[in-house]
Amino acid sequence: MKLVEHFESGLDAPICLTWELTYACNLECAHCLSSSGRRDPRELTTEQCEAVIDELQRMQVFYVNIGGGEPTIRPDFWHLLEYAVDHQVGVKFSTNGVRITPERAAFLASPACGGYVDVQISLDGATAEVNDYVRGPGSYDTAITALRNLRDAGFTDAKISVVCTRQNIGQLDEFQALADEYGATLRLTRLRPSGRGADVWDELHPLPEQQRELYDWLRGWGEGVLTGDSFFHLAGFGESLPGLNLCGAGRVVCLIDPVGDVYACPFAIHDNFLAGNLLTGGGFQQVWQHSPLFEDLRSPQTGGACTQCAHYDACRGGCMAAKFFTGLPLDGPDPECVQGYGEAALAGSRTIPAGSQDHSKAAPTRNQPVMLKLMTRPPVSDCAESPLAGWTP
Amino acid sequence: MDLDELGLDQAWALSPSVALRPEPFGALAYHFGNRKLIFLKRPELVAVVRGLGAVGGDGSVRSALVAAGVPEAGWPAYLAALEGLAASDMIARVA
């Protein structure tokens, strides 16, 4: 049995586990894949979180990717971080930087964290103009301040985590320059049409020629840039990029959400991909090893129309979440298929599924991004000055 | 090939920063320091790696290979695999 077949049939414990600690967030990013904003009142308590970490230690989950929402605004975040490290569960956490003060940066660089902690600062533009357009006003400055605090505290090798969009793919070299300036490593990931990302995907997802630009750039940097294995759909261009190059959902990857629900992957927070809850399902190990959904994902999958394609072995049909949230069949091409089959599929009839959870803030705050667009509807006439022109009650 | 030239009597030890997790195909080795994840694709290799630091053993590659029941003809391949692990700092020579 080849190693990739072992991965497809599932491992005893995930290799890559994402844990969204809270749906609460100070920001309201337009493309938030967990539709975060408000805290969920059912959020796991500190004790419940500690029990999860105990179980991850028993299962030898070597590290956990903590995100949110904004995880650092949980009052017990720093306690849970230390608790995990003390229990041999390394932590990689994603933050917009809002709580990375000089004091916290010094803590992260200290022996208390034992070098078991990675910090990923989210930045979706190499300039404030591009970043703040999707992440909201002031978010660029917050991220840069956090990077500066980490560097000045002697924390080495922070990660700059970038979601690649139509607007920032032209800035890859500028991102790399920022990483160099702050002694950081660049981490590029794919924009998914998940959560609020579904609302802006059409505008933000990279154009076909940009996918090629990204692929060539990634090939040039090799293992010097991290990708979370998120670009395996680009393998259809030819050579595979470093990484596992398969959909790991429910096989080597999964997500625990703030209320303890376990989903097949971080980009699939939807009832269709809900495997169970670790509070009611007998614990995380039980859900991971025995949920019917995960057992189904680990059974041989059909590639559908894609199996006729010469590149199927390279891209394996692409990303399940990207297909699902654009309303495409799961056994067909990825919406961003580099052979162009995605565009044809998107042009056909499809229904975008409604989200099954939304923790977006009920009323926008000053942090909400304002994605201004040019008016595409012509005015009623050149001289119709009345604001009610063209409106008939 | 002269097996002695491969350093069979060299003592090696698993890095204290490395954890091994059993899996159906063998084991996952994770290095908490350099964050490298390596797949040990044969149960015999896992046995050899665990045998390097076995209590009561001398830590040498030879005794680990013998203890794991690897036939002599296969030793060069295992030594190459161990060199690969050493290159990622998963195991290190004991002075």
Question: Your description of this structure?
Answer:
The complex is a heterodimer of chains A (393) and B (95). Chain A has a 9-stranded mixed beta sheet. In chain A, strand 3, helix 4 (102-109) and strand 4 form a beta-alpha-beta unit. In chain A, helix 4 crosses helix 6. Chain A is built from 14 helices and 9 strands. Helix content of chain A is 31%, strand content 12%. With 95 residues, chain B is an alpha+beta fold. Helices cover 32% and strands 23% of the residues of chain B. In chain B, the strands form 2 sheets. Chain B has a 3-stranded antiparallel beta sheet, covered by helices on one side. A two-stranded antiparallel ribbon of chain B has the order 1-5. In chain B, a hairpin with a 2-residue loop joins strand 2 (18-23) and strand 3. The termini of chain B are far apart. Chains A and B meet through loops of A and strand 2 of B.
Features:
heterodimer; A: 393 residues; alpha/beta; 9-stranded mixed β-sheet; 14 helices; globular; B: 95 residues; alpha+beta; two-stranded antiparallel ribbon; 3 helices; 5 strands
Secondary structure tally: strands of chain B: 5
Work out the largest interface and the residue count of each chain: A-B, 15 and 14 residues
The number of helices of chain B is 3
Overall 3D shape of chain A: globular
**Mean of residue pLDDT of chain B?**
86
What is the first-to-last residue Cα distance of chain B?
Answer: 25 Å
Number of strands of chain A: 9
Query: What is the makeup of the main sheet of chain A?
Result: 9 strands, mixed
Widest β-sheet, arrangement of strands of chain A: 6-5-4-3-2-1-7-8-9
Q: How large a portion of the residues of chain B is in β-strands, by DSSP E?
A: 15-25%
Whole-number radius of gyration of chain A?
Answer: 21 Å
Terminal Cα separation of chain A, in Å? 69 Å
- What is the tally of helical segments of chain A? 14
Radius of gyration of chain B: 12 Å
Low-confidence stretches of chain B: none
Please state how the strands of the largest beta sheet of chain B are arranged side by side.
Answer: 2-3-4
Question: pLDDT average of chain A, as an integer?
Answer: 93
